[in-house]
Amino acid sequence: MTNSGEGRDCPPQGQNRFLPCFHKFDLLGNSDGSSSGVTKRMNRARFWLTTGAACGFVTVALGAFGAHGLRGLVSADLLANWGTATDYLGLHALAILACGLWLLHRPEDRWVRRAAGALIFGILLFSGSLYAMVLTGERALGMVTPIGGLFLLLGWALLAFSAWRIPEHPDAAQG
Question: In Å, how far are 27, 29, 94, 123 from 59, measured between CA atoms?
Answer without folding.
Answer: 32, 37, 11, 11
